[in-house]
Amino acid sequence: MEYQAFTVLTCLSLLCTSGAAGSKIIMSSVQILSHVMVQSAVASELIDRGHEVYMAIGSRIANPERLERLGIKMLYFDVPGHEVFGLTEDFEMTMAQSAFRQGFPEYAASLMGSRDCSLMMQDESFKRKAKELRFDLALIGPFVYAPCNLILAHYLEIPFVSMATLLLPWELRIPALPSFSRIQGWYPIVDVTTFMGRLINLVSFIYAETSLFVPGPHNTTLLQQYAPEVSSWKELIRKSELILTDIDHHMGVPFPAFPYFIAVPGLSARPAKRLDATFETLLNENNDGIIVMSFGTMVHHIPNAAIQKLLKAFSRLKQTVLARMEPPTDGTTVPQNVKLFSWIPQNDILGHANTRLFITHCGNSGQHEMLYHGIPFVGLPLFSDQKLNCHLAASRGYGIMVNIFDFKSEELFEAIDEVLNNGNYTKAIRKASEIFRDEPFTGRQKAAHWIEHVLKYGGSHLRSKSLDLPFYQFLMLDVLGVLAILLLAILLLVKHLTSLLLLKIFYRKPEIAGNGHLSLNNNSHKFKLR
């Protein structure tokens, strides 16, 4: 008994002193709700462990109370009213329209992200408060299309941890070869078992490292102003104490890693909480089960043409459909079995025993919630990493992918009917869910643990020498270049020596015969000239 009591006390002591409790942390990411919510999941865990967490956020954020309820303290920077801002309803409508026109929302996010960083660093009041708070660490979300939030940690002269939402391995000096791995969250989809697939993959790796097609990474105005000694955002991100990513092999592909690179998948996935009376009633009243539909934090303003096809397919189902979608504006009738909401507790609904199917755009957070709770899916990806996510999940038997830009209501209904009535999809994802949950720590616990580790010890012992190498040395292009030159020189020398030898063997000088006649001796043949 005394030994058991001592063991319990020791474990409690280790738990209480495991991290640098009471540290002050500031978070900053691109001002888009999905990115903010990923950071807030880590913030919630850190707050539960006794840390004080602030979030750098634009002053025009809608509903800041949902972050404040988690215990996060807001540190506002001014965003003028005339600017399009990512954490508002107007921006969500703009992004949805762009997505359904098959535009490139990442381009708009890149421009907006760079502008928001400029607004943050122009706000003298914000910078003064941030300096006065004397933070111990920053958690930065350097979105690949707009990495400029890194400048805040550099300005405050504090160590920082980066959360990479789209992983460019060569940028982070991770030795991933295009022959077997791929850029997580990147398009196009390729089969690396084929020569053409590996060739396309290699081109993708080179292209991602050398010239992204959006302006954000190339806008170095803030770097020149606040960090003139740093040549690029890529160089600055490599100064991170730690790099976290919310992608791993469970929904992505296996990937090589160094100690400074930590996968923390499923940050928003957690055991389901009890639903309020409205949702609980809806989930329990239909014996055939519930289908939940959501296209993420940004896309719930869906064009009427797409809504008509969605509702026509849903009207043929026995299940109740809970959809995060604004009502149609063209007078289209909403079927009785479809309930529309501007917001839903997605994770908690997916975790309900009566939920049978998830209709999703295959965003990273949603697909990990789907995996955590073992719910099969029908995917309608829109942009960015969603197509790859959907393709990978469908290839593993978790559901079916449908082209949202060119689908018919009959096609969608058949896909839903197939997943609902073919038990192989549920069987496959439930097995994957068991594997995913059979981990000693959740993604948010792992993220908080390693952040505390860095707070206590720093991150220098986790770093690889590769982080300090320029790109050409990382890929050994200098060594390969010298070897290529040496090989060429050796080949030229061999060619020259071979030519001399052949001349000596086959083209000897003429000899004078004993009878005074000139003869040419070439091997065994003799020719005489008279």
Summarize the structure.
The chain has 530 residues and is α/β, with parallel strands linked by helices.
The name of the CATH superfamily of the largest domain reads: Glycogen Phosphorylase B
What is the rounded distance between the termini? 121 Å
Question: Count of DSSP E strands?
Answer: 16
CATH class bucket of the largest domain: Alpha Beta
Q: Please, what is the average pLDDT? A: 86
What Rg is obtained from the alpha carbons, in whole angstroms? 31 Å
Stated plainly, the CATH topology of the largest domain is called: Rossmann fold
Q: Name the helicity range.
A: 40-55%
- The number of distinct structural domains comes to 3
Strand order of the largest sheet: 3-2-1-4-5-6-7
Structural class category: alpha/beta
Topology:
Layout: H1 2-17, E1 24-29, H2 33-48, E2 52-58, H3 65-68, E3 73-77, H4 89-100, H5 105-122, H6 124-132, E4 137-141, H7 150-156, E5 160-164, H8 195-210, H9 221-226, H10 233-237, E6 242-245, E7 261-263, H11 277-285, E8 290-294, H12 304-314, E9 320-324, E10 338-341, H13 346-350, E11 355-360, H14 364-373, E12 377-379, H15 386-395, E13 399-401, H16 409-421, H17 423-437, H18 443-457, H19 471-474, H20 477-506, E14 511-512, E15 518-522, E16 525-529
What does this structure look like?
With about 525 residues, this protein is of the alpha/beta class. The protein folds into 3 domains: about 20-270 and about 440-475, Rossmann fold; about 275-435, 3-Layer(aba) Sandwich (Rossmann fold), CATH 3.40.50.2000; about 485-530, no CATH class. It is built from 20 helices and 16 strands. It has helices at about 1-15, 35-50, 65-70, 90-100, 105-120, 125-130, 150-155, 195-210, 220-225, 235, 275-285, 305-315, 345-350, 365-375, 385-395, 410-420, 425-435, 445-455, 470-475, 475-505; strands spanning about 25-30, 50-60, 75, 135-140, 160-165, 240-245, 260-265, 290-295, 320-325, 340, 355-360, 375-380, 400, 510, 520, 525-530. It has a 7-stranded parallel sheet with strand order 3-2-1-4-5-6-7, sandwiched between helices. α2 crosses α18 (about 445-455) and α12 packs across α16. The longest helix is centred in the last third of the chain and has 30 residues, at about 475-505. It is globular and about 100 Å long. The relative contact order is 0.10. Residues about 1-20 and about 525-530 have low confidence and may be disordered.
